[in-house]
Amino acid sequence: MDNKVVEHAHIIIKLLQDVIYDEDKTTWNDLLTYQVPIRDYFAKIGVQVYLDEREGFAFLRQIEDENQKLPRLVRRMPLSYEVTLLCAILREVLEEFDVGDMESRKCFITGQELRERIEMFFPEPSNRVRLLEKLERAIQTTVKLGFLKEIIPENSESDEIRYEVRRILKAKITNTKLAEIKHELEQYATSL
User: How far is CA 92 from CA 20, 49, 130, 182, in A?
Assistant: First the structure.
């Protein structure tokens, strides 16, 4: 039995850990170089490497096969109403950005802009402090999920935190999925 570690093992491990972005130039270039054996490796265990060179990210996606019931590599976690709403808003922010800005691939939004966009989906809150706490928790959850990247200001005039809206959101929430989410959110809002 050959126990030699393959030269692209570090990429396999990084993909198992998290999303790979093109901003990590060395890892990204290694991924592009070894993408065929890496794809073959994961295909053997029912996992697909989702690689979007134009958007600059790669991640693992479990292949859904009715004939083979494989255990899930990554657990699916239901999202709260606030997190789902925030993800839908962020997906729309990315769409607006892509239509308007052809020079940059990075889309940024401030915490204040996020709060303004999400607050309009809630009726006049009787307890504004509680609403803001919920929104802050939703933002932090979205950061943990990897859809937002917190950018801490360095020597800027404003000390407000900005967030980069990560492009993986486009792969995780397609236009079809976004329409479904909007429909579900509308139904939820009318039931309140």
Answer: 23, 25, 25, 11
